[in-house]
Specification:
By secondary structure, this protein is an alpha+beta fold. It is about 45% helix and about 20% strand.
């Protein structure tokens, strides 16, 4: 599966920051019965990132009632499976906050392993 424009932009920023390369379109092995795919995953760090595109579009996949229900369930099940979850928007990718949050989350794991 190819990355969306926002996902590609975030992937570029992750690489530019020198962060570890994530797996993309990752399905959690702990939830084999679910078809949820996460846009970015660092399995060893148990960090998941999902890009919320179309946040300003009426009734997009993420802003519709059905989409919100699905995303909430996806987040809760991943959290219960022991993952840290980040949902990020296009604006947060474009202004650099998303990659900075990812960098901080990855450093928290590194610091705890010392």
């Amino acid at each position: 599966m190819t990355l969306s424009a926002l996902e590609s932009q975030l992937a570029y920023m992750i690489k530019a920051y020198g962060l570890p390369e994530p797996k993309t379109q990752y399905r959690l092995p702990e939830l084999p019965e679910r078809k949820f795919a996460w846009d970015f995953c660092w399995p060893c760090e148990r960090l998941l990132v999902d890009v919320q595109g179309g946040t300003w579009v009426a009734n997009s996949g993420h802003t519709s009632g059905t989409g919100l229900e699905r995303d909430c369930e996806k987040m809760v099940l991943a959290t219960l499976a022991g993952y840290r979850v980040m949902f990020v928007t296009g604006m947060q990718i474009k202004d650099g906050r998303a990659v900075q949050w990812i960098e901080r989350a990855l450093k928290v794991v590194d610091a705890s392993e010392i």
